[in-house]
Amino acid sequence: MNAIKNFFLYFFGEGTEQEFAIFTLAHFAPILLMIGVILLIFWKREALQRYKHEETIRYILAFALIISDMAYYWRLVGSPWLHPGPVENLPIGVCGWAVIFCSFMVVGKKQPLFDIAYFWLLSGSLFALLTPTPLTFTGPTRFRFYQFWFEHTLGYIAIFYMIFVHKMRPTIKSAVRSYIALAVMAVIAYFVNVMIPGANYLYMARPESAPSVLDILPPNFALRLLVMAAVITLMYGLAYLPWYLKDRKAKKQAS
Question: Which residue, of 47, 75, 168, 228, has the fewest CB within 10 Å?
Answer without folding.
Answer: 47
